[in-house]
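Support reply, case 0932

Customer input (verbatim):
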Amino acid sequence: MKIIKDISYSSVQNFTSFIYGFIIHIFLARFLGTEEFGKYSFVIWMVGFLTTFVMLGLPTTMTKYVSQLYPNETYKLRSFIKHYFPQGVGLFILASFLFYIIYKGKMFINYFVVLAITLVCILNGLIISIISGLRNFKVLMYSSLISQSVFLFLILTVVKKIGNIYTAVITYTVYVLVGFLINFFSEKRLFKIFKEKILSQKIDDIVKYYVYVSFAIILDYIVWQNSEIFFLKLYSPINEVSFYTVAFSVAYLPQRLLVSSVSKVILPFMSNIYGKNELDNLNKSYYVFTKYISMILIPIYLILFFIADRVIQLLYGTPYLSSVYPMKIILFSALIGGIASVASNYVHAVEKVDIIVKIGFFVALLNLGLNIVFIPKYHSIGAAIGNSSAQIIGCLLGTFYLVFKFNLKFPWVNIVKYTICSFIVCYILNFLISNQFQNIVHIIIYALFCFFIYIGVIFLDPTERNEFRKMLVKMNKEI
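Our regenerated output:
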């Protein structure tokens, strides 16, 4: 019963966070305009970068070991925090100094304000990771709902009336503070960990895990949009940051909503099969999950590709139409990355995470190189080309490696079939009714219409119906 409640709270938090975040993103972009929104995006990116650089693998490490060691060995957690503290302070000073040197004279807001927000984010991140380890997902759900509601309310009242970077950053600061205070005072077990007086020197396993996760996070952070913002700020007008931020956010929304939720099922499902040493069933599950994620994602991304300009215009307004071409480019990498996510879960299940790090290192270097080549000349479009190219190459390398190394079956034929079917359905309907789009409701109706016609055509094939039925029966028995 406890795990069902945890999953429910976590799912609600995950879904509402995406919805709130997307709505907030749209309102901020509209109220601030392209230039001010670009400034705001850069400041928030800077806060995020500093927070990630200082914390590195700390949140993941704390979540894992709080869950593993609490309540009998909390002294190890206290010892690790003490071990980490000097390093965290040093990283914070180093990152703050480097940012000041790089962007001296180019700041849009007082730098000490940025550092203050970063400190709150670091503390909040630490508290959230510990509460996750304590499995108090109810607190995290309520904290997220309340803080984001406050954020949205302030945007609709204050930022709408006084639309500039200062009011936007202040509302963001209030949002983070509200979340931190709720988290901190709602979980009394936090004090037991921080007040632990006994220390231990036997924390090598925790430190080793922290170092490994930190390295993986650095590589992941380079690839996921963040290096592009860095170079765009150096080489492009500030509104190009706005265009790329909007393009990236919209293009990855389906993957973040759908794939992240499905992955929470795939990983334990695969891990359970691997624990039973049923490798044939594990390889079959890779094929099945990849097939059905492809079946769902391909039409969604083709729909977005066909109506990208109308989506951007209706959601963000005409000033953001320059986001359309970057978005169309990023859609390809988002789709391929979503399909390849099953491979990532497979790697974690068979405990071969070093594959991700090795490929990730190459992809990160490639991404940085492409950014340096394309961004100064093509700005937000160049950022989309660099990021998407690197991610597609990384996904293909990982998939080919797994297919040949572990003798996995990949649904090539199915993916081609789904792509052709989606393209035909979306193209015909787009041609017939594209002039009818007047508001976002029309777009939603069109998207749903395309998707259900596509599903209907796919399941006209009796083989597809039988395989889908067998998959549902097998999953029901296994989980």
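We compared this against your earlier run and they match. Two observations from our side: The CA atoms of residues 57 and 214 lie 4 Å apart. The chain is about 85% helix and 0% strand. Please reopen the case if you see a mismatch on your end.
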